[in-house]
Structures are given as structure tokens and as C-alpha cells.
Specification:
Layout lengths: L6 H25 L10 E2 L3 E2 L2 E2 L4 H11 L5 H16 L3 E6 L2 H12 L13 E6 L4 H4 L4 E3 L27 E6 L8 E2 L4 E2 L8 H14 L4 E7 L18 H13 L3 E4 L11 H4 L3 E5 L10 E6 H11 L24 H16 L1 H19 L4 H4 L3 E5 L4 E5 L15 H6 L3 H9 L1 E2 L3 E2 L2 E5 L13 H21 L4
Parallel strand pairs: 1-16, 5-7, 5-10, 6-7, 10-11, 11-12
Antiparallel strand pairs: 2-3, 4-13, 8-9, 12-13, 14-15, 15-18, 17-18
Helix pairs in contact: 1-14, 1-15, 2-10, 3-10, 4-9, 6-7, 11-15, 14-15
Length: 486
């Protein structure tokens, strides 16, 4: 039982206690033995945009090898296409861009927004997304509908208004946001916003609800979109016999039925090993290759070959006007060009994923084992609220506690708005310890390798990974104490 009469009273108390909590976190770093020289140099993930993970020696060497060679970018771009086709088949194609957000922008503007030119008034289009986590990425390219969600992204990002996330909205495009059946959108946090709690999502029921919404918006329907993740903390725990998330498969089926694209944002995912676009019916799938795949900063689009043609044309890579199989020229979205070094690094990373998939999985397995071991040391009064699982798609370990209040343990849950406000204690607390933070909001924590926790060959450095997780566990106990849970 909580000693706080109302939920927001807990978060008010935590806000007032922040200086004490952070001071205890700093002391805890000394107590658990985090070396001074490690602090600020290692972290719980290599997959956050604010501090990129380290590339392996083989990727670094691949970049250095071409840095002073004269090689047309088209040569690299075609090699990426060949690597992807070797795995997914000739019916699929690929394109490298500067970032995953560029990949999303390109995909939505080419496939979902109304025509840019021609006589007559422009029409409006709508695409549908489930009300899920990270919605400001793949759900940020239209004006929200229904209007109750019109201010949903107001406090996300460092900049508000039209120069923030709102500035991504495409002309005459709406995004229809559909709550997921079984999800909870309870208000939590010091910033005090709705959190997105998805461990209880029911896939089939959600798909039926999305179908009803699609039929209601049939005249303007231009697409579907979702994340490509595969864990229950993201609402995709229910899987088919082939291991594909059922909800994603149903969205792919709806896309085929309504003849509109299904755009999948798999930013924190890896090609070949992770979510298979063929199994879920994705028309295109986008990746942030520097998050889990081990590449330098760049984004990758893998999609059906017929759908990739206009996307490649928009980047100026589809072919010269007089007829070639490919080119590397100017077009509407040449600003998303990744550059030669990123192309070479992405090739090396893709080859490593194909040739060393077992090694990638072994590292995830070991990270999972270490996480389970360290969380077993938590106080027994709160240990049971944390469910730990692993994801090969994301190369990550998920620690979920989003139903702890229902279990009678009112441990604080922070919305993403707390992250941007600098009031998510599970993030700023690890920073105070000298451990670079990871994604730890909406009652869900993602832990992965790559930020000082892997060696030059990409293998796990166990003592660093263990100490980072141990710091997180200690911070959880500190937060639980100030929440009067312990």
C-alpha cells in the first residue's frame, strides 16, 4: 500500500527528493566500485541517439580502407542491395540513407503523402498507427486524429512547436491514432503525462479495432504503420507459430486488403536476425543501423522491390534518365545521402550480421544471463515486479514492470516526457553514477551492448556490462526507498 493519497502525490514527493536521490546515487557508484576512469565512458546501451555506441574493429577497418580510394558511391549502394537480396530474395530491395528518421521521412513522403504537383486541389490522406511507444517517430508525420491527440507530442523533444516534432508533419497528411486493446494509458511521472503500458495488449482484438477504424477512414486511407519490435513490453508479446508478432502480421494483412503500404519502424532492430519483413507483410522496414546493427550512423530501408522503386527515385539512386540499373545523383531527398564512409561501414556491419549471427545471439544470451543474475539481488519485496526477457531483433534485454501498481507495488513509472524534461530518475540517476543512461520509461527498460561494454571484436566485456546493470539495480532500490515501497 502506498502512503500517498493520490498518485501525483508520489511524484511530487520524488521531485522534492531529487537532490537527495542523486546524491545517494553518486555515493552508490563508489560503494559498488565503479572505477573513476570508467564513469561517463560506459553505459547500459549503445543505442541512444545522444551517445552512439562504438563500432567494431572490422567495421572501422572497412571504413578506413575506402576513405582514400576513388570508388563511386553507386558501387557501395549496389553491394548493399546484393547483400539484402541474398537474404530476403530478389523480390526485395534496399537503400541506405543518413539516419532512420530520414528513412521514415522518405518512406512516408513518397508512399503516404498526396501528390506534390499537378492541377487541381490537393486531397488529404490518413495513415493509421496503434497508440504505442515511440509514437513521435513513425506517428509524427501527420496531424493527429481524433483531435484529442492533437497535443500529444507537445512536450517531446528539446524544441517545441513547428521547429520540434510538429515540424515533421507532411502537407495534407493526418495520422489516426488507435488505442491498443489491453493497453493502459495511465497518467504517471514527475512531468505527469499518460504512460503507454503495453504488456497486456491483445493482438487479435487490437487488429479488429484497427480494421474498424480503417473502414471508417476508407476514403482517405493511405497506409498503416507500427514499430517492428518483438517484446511484450512493446505490445508484441503474442506471436504466431513462426515467431512473428501477431499484431504486426494482421497489420500486414490489412495493408494488402486495402492496397496501402505498411511502413514498419524497426529502428532498434537488426536485419537478417530480427523481425522478418516477409513474415509480417511489411512493405518497407526501416532500421537505425548504428543502434543494434553495429554500423556507423546511418539508416537502412528494406522493402518490396516494386515499392522501393519510387523511394530509390526520390533519393536519386534508381538510375539515370537514359536508362541504367542504378545511379547516384540528385533528387528530391538527396539531403538524406549517407556518404561513402557510412556506405562502406554499413556493408561491413551487414556482412557481420549474416556471417556471425550465432555470435550476435550469444552476446545477447550472456547479457540476459548477467541481467537475471544482478536483478536476483533486488530486495524480495520488489523483485517480483520485474519481468526480464531478451530480444534478438533488438540485441537487447527488456526489463518490464509496467503492471507493478496492479500487483500492489506502487513503484514509479515515468513517461517519455520525463526523459525530455530531465526528471526520469531511472535515467538521470544512472548518469549521476557515471553510467550513461538507456531507454527507461513507460515501465520498460531496454539494456543492450555497445557503449563501452564490448571489445574491438564486438564481444561482451562482462565486468563492465555487469557493473552497469548492478548500478541500475542499486538505483532501483534507492528510488523504491524514496517512493516508500521499501
Amino acid at each position: 500500500m502506498s502512503m500517498f493519497k493520490y498518485r501525483y502525490h508520489l511524484y511530487r514527493h520524488l521531485k522534492q527528493s531529487l537532490p537527495k536521490i542523486l546524491e545517494e546515487a553518486r555515493k552508490a557508484a563508489d560503494e559498488i566500485g565503479i572505477p573513476k576512469e570508467w564513469r561517463g565512458k560506459f553505459g547500459l546501451t549503445g543505442a541512444i541517439s545522444g551517445c552512439h555506441g562504438l563500432i567494431s574493429k572490422e567495421v572501422d577497418e572497412a571504413i578506413s580502407a575506402v576513405a582514400r580510394e576513388v570508388i563511386p558511391n553507386r558501387v557501395f549502394a549496389d553491394e548493399i542491395r546484393d547483400i539484402v537480396k541474398d537474404h530476403y530474395g530478389d523480390e526485395y530491395d534496399a537503400l541506405l540513407v543518413s539516419t532512420c528518421e530520414a528513412a521514415l521521412w522518405l518512406s512516408f513522403d513518397v508512399l503516404v503523402s498526396p501528390p506534390f504537383t499537378g492541377r487541381g486541389d490537393k486531397y488529404r490522406t490518413r495513415y493509421i498507427v496503434p497508440y504505442e511507444r515511440h509514437l513521435h517517430h513513425h506517428g509524427g508525420y501527420g496531424r493527429p486524429f481524433p483531435p484529442q491527440y492533437k497535443d500529444i507530442f507537445a512536450d517531446r523533444g528539446c524544441t517545441a512547436g513547428e521547429l520540434g516534432f510538429y515540424g515533421k508533419r507532411l502537407e495534407n497528411v493526418d495520422v489516426v491514432i488507435v488505442p491498443m486493446v489491453g493497453a493502459r494509458y495511465t497518467v504517471h511521472g514527475i512531468k505527469y503525462h499518460p504512460t503507454i503500458l503495453l504488456s497486456g495488449v491483445k493482438a487479435e482484438e487490437t487488429a479488429k479495432r484497427i480494421r474498424q477504424v480503417a473502414e471508417q477512414n476508407i476514403e482517405m486511407l493511405a497506409g498503416f504503420s507500427s514499430l517492428g519490435y518483438d517484446t511484450f513490453g512493446y505490445g508484441y508479446g503474442e506471436k504466431d507459430k513462426d515467431g512473428a508478432p501477431i499484431l504486426q502480421k494482421r497489420l500486414g494483412e490489412l495493408a494488402e486488403e486495402f492496397n496501402v503500404p505498411y511502413i514498419v519502424d524497426n529502428a532498434w532492430g537488426v536485419p537478417f536476425i530480427g523481425t522478418d519483413p516477409r513474415k509480417i507483410g511489411a512493405w518497407v522496414m526501416t532500421y537505425s543501423m548504428d543502434k543494434a546493427a553495429g554500423a556507423p550512423t546511418c539508416g537502412l530501408i528494406i522493402g518490396r522491390e516494386d515499392i522501393m522503386v519510387p523511394i530509390r527515385r526520390a533519393m536519386g539512386t534508381h538510375g539515370d534518365r537514359y536508362g541504367t540499373w542504378s545511379s547516384y545523383g540528385k533528387a528530391a531527398y538527396v539531403t538524406f545521402d549517407p556518404g561513402k564512409e557510412a556506405l562502406a561501414g554499413a556493408i561491413a556491419a551487414l556482412k557481420a550480421l549474416k556471417e556471425k549471427a550465432d555470435k550476435f545471439k550469444r552476446n545477447v544470451d550472456r547479457l540476459y544471463e548477467i541481467t537475471v543474475e544482478e536483478f536476483s539481488n533486488l530486495d524480495s519485496r520488489i523483485r517480483h515486479i520485474f519481468r526480464i526477457s531478451k530480444s534478438y531483433n533488438s540485441g537487447a534485454v527488456e526489463v518490464n514492470y509496467d503492471d507493478c501498481w496492479e500487483k500492489g507495488v506502487p513503484f514509479p513509472i515515468f513517461p517519455i516526457e520525463d526523459m525530455y524534461a530531465g526528471t526520469n530518475i531511472l535515467q538521470i540517476g544512472t548518469d549521476a553514477m557515471g553510467i550513461i543512461q538507456t531507454i527507461a520509461y513507460d515501465g520498460n527498460i531496454f539494456i543492450s551492448l555497445g557503449l563501452g561494454t564490448t571489445d574491438e571484436n564486438g564481444d561482451i566485456i562482462e565486468d563492465k556490462a555487469r557493473l552497469a546493470i548492478r548500478g541500475l539495480v542499486k538505483l532501483i532500490e534507492i528510488v523504491a526507498k524514496y517512493s516508500n515501497v521499501l
